[in-house]
């Protein structure tokens, strides 16, 4: 089967056919996916009717798994294995989450523009999201090209941000939505980590903006000034010309490179409609900056 790539947007996102993610991949196939990812940052592989085991096996082609996405909140009962981020609106009995369910409250954070796992010292490389039950009325996933957004900044802004370092935490992103009821233990576990604001892609050498809803401070800046600036950069980076909007078809497998994109999910009627999306994630090469001594 020959591998073909069709761009979905001028700079970000392409559909890739000719890969069967259910089967073991040859080295050439893995290299083709990686080359497609380096270039397009988001790949849509349609018609991938995966079991959880097949999704995990396919994901392992792209580096070590980032696990534990669902255990950041204490006392959640898992529907999927620990290597999955369950971004469905279902509980462990496959019932829709109730309106005030704590897991639903936390998941609403995915409606804010973010890059996955930037609240960890080693953030995510690829996220692979499998659309098992998709929505057509709402529930699109949007992707912003953080390379194009960086390139479009003026020279003075580029110089100003070159060496800035931000604090990232789930407490900050959830706090933006008013979800603040964390236990002391959770607050300790989710204490901020540091990341550069400008990062360089290890393969292409391109610079991009490392923005995420998880940002709550810029090191050395007064907090309101930092947050106002981050908002400006977010607004810049998510202008329509930088954004690919993905409308889901069942069994789409969408892969994004968190090192050069942000994403968010759009609102849908999650109290009445089922959306079963399962994410696996690989780790990036390492920290973007040395962490402060604790
Ligand atoms: C994710 C995420 C978006 C979506 O899986 O990391 O943010 O469309 N999900 O559910
Ligand atoms: Mn996400």
Secondary-structure element series: EEHEHEHEEHHEHHEEEEHEEEE
Radius of gyration from the alpha-carbon trace, in angstroms: 18 Å
Overall tally of domains: 1
- Identify the overall geometry: globular
CATH topology annotation? Double-stranded beta-helix
SS element count, helices: 8
What is the first-to-last residue Cα distance? Answer: 52 Å
Residue share in β-strands: 15-25%
Helix content: 10-25%
The biggest beta sheet is recorded as:
7 strands, mixed
Small molecules held by this entry: N-oxalylglycine, manganese (II) ion
Q: Can you say what the CATH homologous superfamily is? A: Clavaminate synthase-like
The multimeric state of the shown protein is: single chain
Architecture overview:
This protein is of the alpha+beta class. It has a single domain, classed as Clavaminate synthase-like (Double-stranded beta-helix), CATH 3.60.130. 23% of the residues lie in helices and 23% in strands. It has eight helices and 15 strands. The longest helix is centred in the C-terminal third of the chain and has 15 residues, at 223-237. The model has no long low-confidence stretch (mean pLDDT 95). Manganese (II) ion is lined by residues 110, 114, 116, 263.
Search tags:
three-stranded antiparallel beta sheet; Double-stranded beta-helix; binds N-oxalylglycine; 23% helix; 294 residues; binds manganese (II) ion; 8 helices; globular; alpha+beta
Q: What order do the helices and strands come in, and which of them pair?
A:
Blueprint: E1 4-7, E2 14-17, H1 27-40, E3 42-45, H2 52-59, E4 85-86, H3 102-107, E5 124-133, E6 141-145, H4 146-151, H5 155-161, E7 165-168, H6 170-176, H7 184-189, E8 193-196, E9 198-200, E10 207-209, E11 215-218, H8 223-237, E12 243-246, E13 253-257, E14 261-265, E15 276-283
Parallel strand pairs: 2-3
Antiparallel strand pairs: 1-2, 3-13, 4-15, 5-13, 5-15, 6-12, 6-14, 7-8, 7-11, 9-10
Bound molecules: N-oxalylglycine (OGA) and manganese (II) ion.
Manganese (II) ion binds near residues 110, 114, 116 and 263.
